[in-house]
Amino acid sequence: MRPIVVALLAAFPVTSLAAQTAGVEGVVVNKVTGQPLSDVHLRVLTGDVATLTVERVYGAMTDRAGHFSISNMKPGLYLIVPERTGFVFVRPPGPIPATVLALRAGQQITDQKVEMTPCGFVSGRVVDDAGDPVPGAYIDLHAVPPDIDFVNPFAIPQPNFSDDRGEFRIAVFPGKYNLQAMPRNAVMMMGTGPAGSPVGPYVPTFYPSANRAADAAPIDVKPGRDAGPLEIRLTHAAPSVPGARPTSIATISGLVTGIPDGGRAAIMVRVSQRSGPVYTLRGYTTDPDGKFMIRGLPPGPLQLFAQFPLGKAKLQSQVVDVPLTDVDTANLQLHLAPGEDLAGSLEIAGEEPASAPSRPIAVQLELVDRGGPGVPDLSPAAVGKDGAFHVAAILPGRYRVRVEPMPDGAFVRSMTLDGAAVEDAGFDFAHGGSASRLKIVLSRSAGELSGRVLDHNGAPLASPLAAVLLWKDAAQVKPDFNMVADSRYVLKGLRPGKYRLLAVDAYDFTNLAGAGDQDEFAKALRTAAEEIEVAESARIVKDLKVAAREDIHVQAK
Questions:
Q1: Structure confidence at residue 202 (pLDDT)
Q2: Which of 35, 399, 485, 500 is the most buried (most CB within 10 A)?
Q3: Eight-class DSSP state of 107
Q4: What distances in angstroms separate CA 83 from CA 61, 157, 268, one per listed residue?
Q5: Hey, what domains does the chain have and what are their CATH numbers?
Q6: What is the chain's mean pLDDT, rounded?
Q7: C-alpha to C-alpha distance for 494 and 537, rounded to whole angstroms
């Protein structure tokens, strides 16, 4: 199961605040029976939800009546994480991976209810087509929609492999799952048989013996029950014949050139899912002659590129799009080359280069997708007095450009690469781009928005967890977060155009039902936001009332 995606509210820092202390007491119950649970260890955490960095922990144990109490707590947002052997906590609705406790200064909560449920189990064995056990197969579970995959981010992950008898047993959250076994020679490994072999390698297989999740038999895991014993019979990759239509798997083969003598290049495969993030498969390598063959790939849009470490530097090939819709792909050519340089210029409209800002500024290139091709950590390129800058050793990839620090009152009026406009989403840099030039034009006529943030009664909001959300264009789904200080907000460096604004208080949105879908939650917030147009050099003062919880309507899928 893939790690949980901490959603939109994760942008709020979940921290404790120096003020009058607070406290909480309540009871932990078994959701199935309604009975109180004793000997439950509760951890109440503060920190950064987005990075799961814990700054402070309060703890308590429940008594025979399931009761717990914690005092002398600093106000703020907390996550309640209960632990007891044989039980799992009931994940609340919303984007945060645990129950959120919102404590204001001096508040004493006396009726906090925490629910746990007996965990379920999935057991069985993995066998080959002869019925013999398959040891070392990785066992994975995928939630069946509308459920979503969930991994407890506060628990130490336990790898699940079949033992020497091919057997496995996994403790899981109750729910419906598709069970999958991935043998050692699965998609992450190089195929060793020649193309056209009558029997291909074993590939990842869904229970009971299916290549696709659509053909799997879902497993219903009940609280405190074992859904097994189950048997997964591994399937083979279909024979790969050049020109043949792929069924449920496909093969890519080719040659990597430019590899240093005696080396082997790594082949990266980027998979675009119909829904969900793009992910990169690693573990493929060429043979000593630079040849490669990758079997067991599902047909669909893929991207391939090759890499080779060279000391502190790196060689990388171009990125090749592979549709894999009608035929297997053979004779793919990937050429390794070092990174190339990019020259550029930065100017401020209406000003001579000599009148550029006195404090040093730099141009920073950031990889848009840090899991993809390119260089994730390029050093900032200093801008000279004549406005020139130079970025060295850029590998092919998609990059976003930032100017740091942005001069006071300035915004990026335009950005072009060899005369073509560069959008906010970034630009693609490929081999052969060493002659390219990036031109950045700033303007000192940025707009500004400021004002007070008001509570639901129209009074200045005193919450330390208030923020103003900003959408810069119609294509932006997830907003920029701007924290509020002393009931006031200031948004500077705004490019002329239309924006959407929404003031929110994190206290109002803890455990919001239906907010588990990040995009739908962001869309609901955007719908509730107010549109405002900002002209060049405008200084707009506008008070914002925080959005009410009932005004955010999430369309749960």
A1: 77
A2: 399
A3: -
A4: 10, 15, 39
A5: 8-118 (2.60.40.10), 120-236 (2.60.40.10), 250-335 (2.60.40), 340-443 (2.60.40.10), 447-551 (2.60.40.1120)
A6: 80
A7: 9
